[in-house]
Amino acid sequence: MEMEKLVSLCKRRGFIFQSSEIYGGMNGCWDYGPLGVELKRNVKESWWRDMVAAHDDLAVPSGAPSAYEMTGLDCTIIMHPQVWKVSGHYDLFHDFMVDCRQSKHRYRHDQVRGRWLTHRGQRIFVATELVADEGLAETQQRALKFFNLRGKDADDLAWEGELVSLTTVADFAQVLGPDAKELGTLTPPREFNLMFETYVGAMRSEDAKAFLRPETAQGIFVNFKNVLDSSRVRVPFGIAQMGKSFRNEITPRNFTFRSREFEQMEIEFFCHPSQSPDWYRYWRDRRFRWYTDLGLAGERLRLREHTVEELSHYSCGTADIEYAFPFLASGDFGELEGIAHRGDFDLRSHMEGKLVRKGNELVVELDAEGKPRHRGSGKDLSYRDDLTNERYIPHVIEPSAGADRATLAFLCEAYAEDQAPDESGKMQTRVVMRLHPRLAPIKAAIFPLVRKDGMPEVAQEIYRAIKPHYTVFYDEKGAVGRRYRRQDEAGTPFCITVDGQTLTDGTVTIRDRDTLEQTRIHKSECLAEIRNRMGRGARG
Ligand code: ATP
């Protein structure tokens, strides 16, 4: 599937629009249209239902070391600035950027690639933002232009191997930047903190500076004691939160994949240190299954364990759930969710202050005067097991997902083109969004075949019977074939049509989006039938 087709369908049918489009758009910001808002809500609600609301606190789920409780939180976007100093985001949450003095473009250092070549004794590095074959083609073309050669002279260029990252190049003097005409126009890489800053209150002073949260997780850690003191949860238990996060990404791109404002769905799961490796494995597998249950069942989804070199300094294990988005080079995957074993790093940080690793230990980072670089709260965030009397700092397993990336993956996976007969029985190409029924923005569409003979009245009756329970859509305009097509593009799994036969025997047709099969049921059974078919869908 080409990404352009999906992006254009998203705009045409009201899934996703560019933010502030009438003013030329806002880079890295996206709005969800009438269909998109329902889809994204269904993604978030499925997550909340499956992880929190419908979780059985009393049963031991398959693969889990024991039963566990789940609860939720909804914290503010602007928190005490010390939260981000202690968590490490203030000092460490940055990417490296390079600027081009000539083109005035800005790039993320690790996203620029290129290749070395020599021509007439001159060795240069031709940089590009493109990957794979497109990157090779672009570097070739730009090298020809740089050396004033024609296409037929391409063999004169002595290339040294494949595209490599700009991070492998120490000196930029011989680098031809991705949009530059001359060599050596890129600045050395500089740190760029991804947190958005703002000021709270009337004074724009350093003291009034605050940050828009770059993740929802910290709100959970700083409320750990509140949750323990106000509810009867016992370790092991999880706290879930979903909501907006903000990152001033240097190069937002790939549709909603890398946005500057996005929504996260995060769980912090607190457990006894001795059981944490088992809980890590449980959550990794449980979260992977959530995506496959909702339709990401093919080869485009994978679970990837991080190598030891990739692990954060506090983590004993991390896995990413990744999807082969169509805008990536073939063989590349993009992160949908990370599941990390974080040990006691977060709770200890908020007790003691910002931590750093010293050998095998985590210790409070000190400044030049020997004082903590960023002070913790000083509050006791340990847990006392009232049955064993043991007091300890729980370990944390963190499944951290993005609602927008998940929504995008479901959209990519759903997009399909097949052949279906039109009004006259002629086969035509049809665009169909094969969204899982739980995620589909509209569950059923109700049509009167024609706008007369009492058919609209019967169809409206059916519409009103289902609407309090499911999102349904009533449509009486245009040829029925066209109405089916519109619903196929919206991902509506079922269409109910009132026709001539309804007026004699009270039956209607129900059409299945994927099989195109039409069966007749009695008009009074529509709600039950939708419920039944939705149930079947929910079980995958
Ligand atoms: P990446 O390496 O792609 O920037 P990350 O490892 O920084 O992602 P995390 O900090 O682990 O991401 O955030 C958890 C989840 O939040 C990600 O798996 C992703 O689904 C989502 N997410 C993070 N950054 C963005 C973004 N800029 N736009 C949309 N979703 C995001």
User: What is the residue-mean pLDDT, rounded to a whole number?
Assistant: 95
Q: Number of helical segments? A: 14
Share of helix, binned:
25-40%
Q: Identify every distinct bound molecule in the structure, by name, code or SMILES.
A: adenosine-5'-triphosphate
Query: Which structural class matches the secondary elements?
Result: alpha+beta
Low-confidence stretches: none
Task: Characterise the protein shown here.
- The protein has 540 residues and is α+β, with helices and mostly antiparallel strands.
- 28% of the residues lie in helices and 29% in strands.
- The protein is built from 14 helices and 29 strands.
- The strands form nine sheets. It has a seven-stranded mixed sheet with strand order 3-13-14-22-17-16-15. Strands 26-25-27-28-29 form a five-stranded mixed sheet, sandwiched between helices. Strands 8-6-7-9 form a four-stranded mixed sheet.
- The two termini are 23 Å apart.
- The model has no long low-confidence stretch (mean pLDDT 95).
